[in-house]
Amino acid sequence: MLPLALSIGDPSGIGPEIILKAWLERRRHELPPFYLLGDPAFVSARARSLGLDVPIAETEPEQAVVGFATHLPISPLDNRLTDNPGHAETVNAAGVIEAVSRAVDDTMQMRSAAVVTAPIAKKPLYDAGFRYPGHTEFLGHLAVEITGAPAKPVMMLAGPELRTIPVTVHEPLATVPSTLTRELVEETARIAARDLRERFGIAAPRLAIAGLNPHAGEGGAMGTEDNDIIAPAIQALQAEGIDAFGPLPADTMFHARARQGYDAALCMYHDQALIPVKTVAFDETVNVTLGLPFIRTSPDHGTAFDIASKGIARADSMIAAIRLARELANNAGGVR
Ligand SMILES: NC(=O)C1=CN([C@@H]2O[C@H](COP(=O)(O)OP(=O)(O)OC[C@H]3O[C@@H](n4cnc5c(N)ncnc54)[C@H](O)[C@@H]3O)[C@@H](O)[C@H]2O)C=CC1
Ligand SMILES: NCC(=O)COP(=O)(O)O
């Protein structure tokens, strides 16, 4: 069995802490072996300052499974990381990006089974010249760079009771309507249906498609995108045999009874998708990227700078992300 590759995320946030805590919880949660792409000196210092007794060892990915029971394996980054909890440092951008790239490379080279990313703050990366809105888009870029084949990454938030998929992802609200096209809705739904079938083992995924406007447009009186873009996309998907339905008024599609009627909800913008799923299960939900030639999961939360290095960060979502990555890798035919 291959280990999972974990990227350290923003060193100023809670990423390092929840990874250390996940390792300490490895037996209780029966976690599969993983290794961290990080700076060993930084990780040791953070563990000490948090009072967490985590032995670490510099390890090649190939050796990570062997020592996982006794220490946290770390595959060292070329870039050093600066320790300044709660304050994003642009100087750390190179190491943060290297960790993600190396985790992807290890996975594509079959040195690891899947990528699990700790949260990154976007702004310090942008300030350092990073051109991608977030992991999701960067992972799509890496996939294309490595394979030479087109890849369309699709974000899905997967919780115990609800899965949601934003069709537009890191898009300012003001430009959502002009970004939303029939093609984008269809492409996102096709990838979601395929990956829910092939990766999650759902034979005939039911996709509930949200409208964009109040009351899904109220027959065109409260906005035209629902009738002009979303409804024709749903008809095309249905004609292909995909069990898609809507456009549904978004305010009434997430309550407990409504959730029984679908396997995933396609939402038209970031907060339409992320507010319901984080409200229902903030600690257990996992961010999964669909549409890639490798598996990637992440906690649903961000860097939580307000509590960085205070010792109170919960590792539940990171633990759920590790467990889901292993499950998806197992579903991928046992190759990994
Ligand atoms: N996958 C990723 O890389 C993600 C990164 N982010 C980034 O994180 C940064 C901060 O984002 P926010 O909107 O403030 O969201 P956040 O999730 O970092 O924090 C929101 C609130 O939840 C609390 N919280 C979050 N995770 C927690 C945990 N594990 N245990 C206990 N409390 C927790 C925080 O203390 C804060 O009060 C942004 O720069 C954003 O870009 C946000 C979401 C995902
Ligand atoms: N709010 C979700 C989020 O920002 C995560 O994005 P990504 O970095 O996983 O693309």
UniProtKB/TrEMBL annotation:
Gene3D superfamilies: Isopropylmalate Dehydrogenase (3.40.718.10)
Enzyme class label: oxidoreductase
Binding site for a divalent metal cation: 170, 215, 270
UniProt-recorded Gene Ontology molecular function terms: 4-hydroxythreonine-4-phosphate dehydrogenase activity
Pathway entry: Cofactor biosynthesis; pyridoxine 5'-phosphate biosynthesis; pyridoxine 5'-phosphate from D-erythrose 4-phosphate: step 4/5
Subcellular location(s) of the protein: Cytoplasm
Names of required cofactors: Zn(2+); Mg(2+); Co(2+)
EC number annotated for this UniProt entry: 1.1.1.262
Alphabetical list of InterPro entries matching this protein: PdxA, PdxA_fam
UniProt feature coiled coil, ranges: none
Cofactor binding, per record: Binds 1 divalent metal cation per subunit. Can use ions such as Zn(2+), Mg(2+) or Co(2+).
Cited Pfam families: PdxA (PF04166)
Protein keywords: Cobalt, Cytoplasm, Magnesium, Metal-binding, NAD, NADP, Oxidoreductase, Pyridoxine biosynthesis, Zinc
Keyword Magnesium: yes
Database matches in NCBIfam families: pdxA, PRK05312.1
Function: Catalyzes the NAD(P)-dependent oxidation of 4-(phosphooxy)-L-threonine (HTP) into 2-amino-3-oxo-4-(phosphooxy)butyric acid which spontaneously decarboxylates to form 3-amino-2-oxopropyl phosphate (AHAP).
Family: Belongs to the PdxA family.
Note: The active site is located at the dimer interface.
Protein name: 4-hydroxythreonine-4-phosphate dehydrogenase
Organism listed in the record: Nitratireductor kimnyeongensis
